[in-house]
Design goal:
The structure is a single chain. The chain has 15 helices and 14 strands. It is α/β, with parallel strands linked by helices. It folds into 2 domains: 145 residues, Nucleotidyltransferase, domain 5 (2-Layer Sandwich); 186 residues, 2-Layer Sandwich (Nucleotidyltransferase, domain 5). An 8-stranded mixed sheet has the order 5-4-3-2-1-6-8-7, sandwiched between helices. A 6-stranded mixed sheet has the order 11-10-9-12-14-13, with helices on both faces. Helix 10 crosses helix 11. The structure holds adenosine-5'-diphosphate. Adenosine-5'-diphosphate binds next to helix 10 and helix 12. The site of adenosine-5'-diphosphate has 12 residues, from helix 10 and helix 12.
Length: 397
């Protein structure tokens, strides 16, 4: 059976077509600039890359174009759309309602709509994608996989903000957390690699990419995570502040900043970009720092320091720690960032093997020494495969 995994943004759609249960990827691609000039589908299958430029006006047309490319008699990978047995959708916010992936029906759509104001940039395009796929593939089961679902096991002590309780009751203001599909995936892989049951591992998962979050996983379940009501909270990111004193906002409001400006400031102009003043890309910052750029160095140092603080905090939360796991673009590739995060961690019992750390890119491997009490691992994330597996399993049930 073929499973199509779809990740819909406001003007883009990423997809992968999986052959299940083998999980081999038959085709993957990206539609960009939907509804804008220059819209195009870029895809890769059978080792070949194609770019199809087309005036793609909306998400329906984008999905239709993807399906057309998949069944193209000469360059496609399947003979008929009916070979696609199910579609899995990444949905960013499931609120408190969704503790796992679900088959989409009218009630599920209504529930996703209900929490849309908690993720105004993500849930509406996710819903648009769901509707477009339903329109183009009527009768094919559509499954929603939520970024928040893995974190629904977080207890009240970790998700409550110390605000008046009625704000939680009235508006659902609490920690939800994101990147759940990735945290779950790497925690499960780590358990496998260490020969443990999936509910038998205590670990700290560090998803470090343009957006970054850390999760404390106890007995295979998320018990705390650094992102909050929105993805702004937690460690510093490419362009987001992470944790900071919220009174800074009142101070800046007094200086004349509007709410919209503060929103942009905190989400788009801060993080390592804000500190360095030059880039949100860790590779660029690494090169600049090596060339003597002090603010690039400071940005990298603050980034590593904040992740380190979370590892300390979550070690205390977990009590017993089996492994620290690095994933995401930075976590998987930036050996120097991992080394900085793991430096001087004798108290926790983390000791990196420098050679293993240097050569870890792209592979699921252990990078700690034999003497290290806590295993440190680099495990590539694969959110699409995780969604494909859930989708396959749900559609068989
Ligand atoms: P997103 O959150 O957008 O999915 P990614 O997980 O792709 O982001 O991570 C992007 C980040 O990973 C960028 O800051 C990029 O510089 C960093 N990165 C990717 N490859 C490397 C590398 N080889 N060394 C250092 N950083 C890297």
């Amino acid at each position: 059976m073929k499973v199509l995994v779809v990740n819909c943004g406001s003007s883009s759609i990423k997809y992968q077509l999986f052959d299940m249960p083998s999980r081999s990827v038959l085709s993957k691609g990206l539609v960009e600039r939907i509804g804008e000039p220059g819209s195009a589908l870029e895809l890769r299958h059978r080792e070949q890359t194609r770019r199809i430029e087309s005036g793609i006006r909306n998400h329906d047309e984008a999905i239709a174009l993807i399906l057309e490319a998949l069944i193209d008699p000469e360059q496609g990978v399947i003979a008929d759309i009916n070979e696609i047995g199910a579609v899995g959708h990444r949905v960013v916010h499931g609120g408190e309602a969704f503790t796992g992936s679900v088959v989409i029906d009218k009630e599920v759509i209504a529930s996703i709509e209900k929490v849309a104001d908690l993720a105004p940039l993500h849930n509406p395009p996710n819903l648009t994608g769901i509707r477009a796929a339903m329109q183009e593939m009527p009768g094919v089961p559509q499954i929603a996989c939520f970024d928040t679902a893995f974190h629904t096991t977080i207890p009240p002590v970790a998700y409550m903000y110390a605000l008046p309780y009625e704000l939680y009751e009235k508006y659902g203001i609490r920690r939800y957390g994101f990147h759940g599909t990735s945290h779950r995936w790497v925690a499960r892989r780590a358990a496998e690699m260490l020969g443990k049951h999936k509910y038998g591992i205590n670990c700290i998962t560090c998803h470090l990419g343009n957006g970054s979050s850390i999760a404390a996983v106890k007995n295979g379940k998320s018990v705390d995570t650094s992102m909050g009501l929105t993805p702004l909270e937690g460690v510093i990111m490419g362009t987001r502040t992470g944790d900071f004193d919220p009174a800074i906002l009142f101070y800046l409001a007094d200086k004349g900043y509007t709410v919209a400006e503060l929103n942009t400031l905190c989400n788009k102009k801060s993080g390592v970009l804000g500190i360095s003043g030059s880039s949100n890309d860790m590779r660029t910052l690494g090169e600049k720092a090596a060339g003597g750029d002090k603010r690039a160095r400071l940005a990298l140092d603050v980034f590593a320091y904040r992740v380190k603080k979370y590892i300390g905090a979550y070690t205390a939360v977990l009590g017993k720690l089996d492994a620290v796991i690095f994933t995401g673009g930075i976590g998987e590739n930036a050996a120097d960032v991992r080394a900085a995060i793991c430096s001087e961690q004798d108290q926790i019992g983390i000791e990196l093997d420098p050679a293993l750390n240097q050569n870890a890119a792209g592979s699921g491997i252990k990078i700690s020494t034999e003497a290290s009490r806590v295993e440190v691992m680099v495990i590539p994330t694969n959110e699409e495969a995780a969604i494909a597996i859930d989708t396959y399993e749900m559609s068989q049930a």
